User: Which sequence fits this backbone?
């Protein structure tokens, strides 16, 4: 079953919704026909951020946020269809990830849960298109982490038979996919990508992010603080592992800074950039030291200071962005959920047990008819 699919992603960076229109109608490589992005309204962004911590009346507020988010998803879908003068019956399905506000895959050694705000029934109603959602829960039910899900997509696109390739998604959280010839697919979250950099910049400078890492580049990394941050047990934990705002948030950073009083705001930003670069590079060294190529995607691919550090830290590895592979860095995750929606419709397994730790392959996603 081929056809046209739409993938929607709103990630931990909380910057908005990305949508990609994909054509899977031929057996060769998929075609990425169109992309659109709609930023979150300020009120929705603040509500989603607040919902990451327990608070008053959060069940009611989360449902209202999910409804607003799904209406925003519908606007993205409509824009994508208008770009190509398409009607709803020409789209096979929408893959809608939802907005993660809790991710606790294991609790006291038992199966946990993951929670993405979404209203897929409303999205199907608003668009007249079948919707595939809730991609992570089945993997968690099978004992997996439910994350990351994109390594299987990276493998389908970028794996080579004669070269060790890694893909690094620098979203709010950074995750690695390790694509080795004649070896099992590996992938895991390796730490904060843009999340702490963005939050610290917003607190001290305003604006959504540190454009090209210019503010960080104007400061000095503090080695003692960096070593303290890298002491977080998550960094040394073996895969499978996944994380999010449940761990890496401003409260976590503030608690770490208590042991390092007097560090200037700009030097904290420089240290956070080095934290992201070193945690990613160390994870790659540890788990695939023979990597010959690193494909970087996500918003962090536009942070030139961060890319410079990755190039410096990985001298034996060619560091490129996914644009060199034909897919814009900001489109990769949304494209992945178009691919995952197609897999669900075909009844094909889409998780990678070697990545998530699940007991076996599983078909991912719940389908909401048009």
Assistant:
């Amino acid at each position: 079953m081929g056809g046209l699919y739409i993938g929607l992603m709103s990630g931990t960076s909380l910057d908005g919704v990305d949508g990609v229109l994909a054509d899977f109608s031929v057996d060769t490589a998929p075609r990425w026909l169109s992309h659109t992005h709609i930023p979150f309204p300020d009120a929705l962004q603040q509500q989603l951020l607040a919902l990451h911590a327990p608070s008053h009346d959060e069940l009611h507020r989360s449902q209202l946020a999910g409804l607003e988010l799904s209406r925003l998803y519908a606007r993205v879908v409509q824009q994508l269809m208008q770009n190509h003068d398409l009607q709803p019956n020409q789209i096979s399905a929408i893959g809608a990830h939802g907005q993660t506000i809790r991710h606790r895959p294991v609790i006291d050694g038992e199966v946990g849960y993951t929670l993405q705000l979404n209203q897929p029934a409303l999205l199907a109603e608003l668009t007249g298109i079948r919707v595939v959602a809730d991609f992570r829960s089945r993997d968690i039910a099978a004992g997996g982490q439910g994350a990351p899900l994109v390594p299987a997509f990276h493998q389908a696109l970028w794996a080579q038979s004669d070269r060790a390739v890694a893909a690094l998604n620098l979203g709010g959280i950074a995750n690695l996919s390790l694509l080795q010839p004649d070896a099992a697919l590996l992938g895991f979250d390796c730490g904060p990508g843009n999340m702490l950099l963005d939050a610290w910049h917003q607190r001290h400078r305003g604006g959504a992010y540190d454009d090209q890492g210019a503010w960080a580049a104007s400061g000095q990394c503090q080695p003692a603080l960096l070593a303290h941050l890298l002491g977080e047990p998550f960094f040394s934990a073996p895969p499978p592992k996944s994380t999010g705002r449940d761990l890496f948030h401003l409260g976590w950073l503030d608690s770490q800074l208590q042991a390092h009083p007097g560090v200037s705001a700009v030097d904290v930003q420089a240290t956070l950039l080095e934290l992201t670069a070193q945690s990613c590079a160390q994870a790659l060294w540890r788990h695939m030291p023979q990597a010959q190529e690193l494909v970087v995607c996500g918003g962090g691919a536009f942070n030139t200071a961060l890319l410079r550090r990755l190039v410096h830290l990985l001298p034996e590895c060619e560091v490129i962005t996914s644009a060199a592979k034909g897919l814009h860095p900001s489109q990769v995750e949304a494209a992945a959920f178009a691919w995952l929606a197609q897999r669900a419709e075909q009844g094909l397994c889409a998780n990678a047990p070697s990545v998530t730790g699940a007991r076996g392959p599983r078909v991912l996603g719940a389908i909401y008819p048009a």
Notes: The chain has a mean pLDDT of 95. The CA atoms of residues 14 and 45 lie 6 Å apart. Residues 58-83 form the longest helix (26 residues). DSSP finds 14 helices and 13 strands in the chain.
